[in-house]
Amino acid sequence: MTTTTPSARFPSAADTAATLLPDAPPVRSTLRVIGSDPLVPSVHRIADAMSAAIGAFGLQTAGLAEDRGRGPCAIGVRATDAIDTLRAPFLTTLGGVDVQTVAEDPTALANNGFHRTADGWIFLITTYPHQRDAVCRVLDCPPLRGRIAEEATRWRAVDLEDAVCDAGGVAAAVRTGEQWAAHPAGRHLAGRPVVEIERIGDAAPLPVPDRLRVLDDTHVIAGPVAAKLLGTFGADVLHVSRPDLPDPLAMVALTGGGKRNTWLDLRDPAQAGRMRELVGGADVFVNAYRGTAARGFGPAGLAALRPGIVALDLHCWGADGPWAARGGFDQLACSATGFALEEGRDGTPSLPPTHLLNDYLAAWLGAAGVLAALRRRAVEGGSWRVRVTLAGVCTWVRELGMFTAAEVADLPRPGAATIATHAVDGPMGRLVEPVLGLEFDGRPAPLPGPPQLLGTAAATW
C-alpha cells in the first residue's frame, strides 16, 4: 500500500490508517491523504486522526470489493474534508435552516458545558429530560444555566460527577491525562487498540452478501453514523428505537440517511421476540445502549441467536469495566481523558475547534472494523465483536502526537466549509449535508438516501 510521505515528526495519516486494523485481510488498493495537521488551532492532530479513520473505512470498502473480484483502486482523502466531517452538524440544513435550530426543546443543549467547581471543572449534560432532571435534583436548582453554574461551585468535581451519575445522569470531571491514566476506568482501557475485533463464537465461513442487513440499535451520533455509512454503501439498515425515548428530530435528520425506522420496546416480551427474529436475519448488529446485554442482545446472545453475526459495540467508557454502567457523550470523553485541558489555556478546559471529535471518529472506525470483521468471517468463519469506545478514541488521538500551543495559536478557527454538499428531499423536507470525504479512483463516494421519520417502517427485513 502506498502512503503519503511521513513528516520527520509524526507518521502520516495514511500510514496510521494502514495500522488501524492489522489483522484484516490484505488490501491492494492504495490510500493518499492530501494535506495534514496543523490546520486549526488545536494542539491535537484532529485532521490527521479523522483522515486516518476515513481512510481505514475506504481501504476496507475497497478490500471488500477486491474480495469480490474487482481490481485495486486509488483512494483519496483530503485533510480539510476531514475537518469538515467533524463539523457535519454545523454544516447541515433542514428545510433551509440550520439543523441545530430544529429543536423540540431549544434549551436542551443550552445548559450543556463546562462548569467551575470548588476544585476544578466538570462537564454536565442535560440534553435529554432524564439527564436534565438528574443534574437539577443533585444541584437542587431549576434548569437555568446561571443557577446550575452557581450550584456547581459548591461541589468538588469528582463528588459532583459521582452524584450526577448515581442519580441517573451523565457528567465527567475534567482530569489531566495523568489523572485519567491512574484512574480505574482509564487503566481498564489502557493498552487496548482503538478498534478491537475479536472472535466470539464459531460459525461456518459466510460470504459477505451484496446487500448487507444491518440492525441499528443506537442513538445520538456515533452508532447511527456508523450504520449510516454502511447503508450509504448499500446495506439494508433497519433502525430500532423505543417510542418513548426518541432521538430529537434534528439528530434523526443528521444520522438517518437511507435507513428504515421502526419502533420496538424490548421491555415487552412480544416485541423482544420480534427483535430476536430480526437478529436471526441480520449480518450486523450495531449497539450503543448499555442495557442491551441484560435483555439478551449482548454479543454472546447475538452470536447464539445468529451464528456468524458481527456485533459492533459503541460506548463511551466500554461495555465492561468500572464505568460500564455510566453513560457518556463525546464531550465527556474529552473532559475525563485530559484532552479538554490540553485544548484549553491557563487551566481552563475547551473542546476542539470542531466542537465534536470522538463521535465521528468512532463511527468511521467502527464501520471500518465491521467491514474488516465481515471479510475475516468470509475466510475464517466465526461470530465477531467489534468494540470502539469514545474514551479510547480520545486517548488514541492524544497518543498520535501533539503540537505546542505556540505552534497552533495563530491558526484560524474553522470557517466556511470546503467540503462539497448534497441535497436530498424526504419526508422531513430538503436536507443539505456534507458528502462523504472519500474518493475512489477520483470518483466521489455514494450519497445517502433521505432520512425517514421514526416509527414509519415495519419491523421486518
TrEMBL record:
Keyword Transferase applies: yes
Domain of life: Bacteria
Record-linked Pfam families: CoA_transf_3
Protein's organism: Pseudonocardia spirodelae
Keywords assigned by UniProt, alphabetized: Transferase
GO molecular function: transferase activity
Name this polypeptide is given: CoA transferase
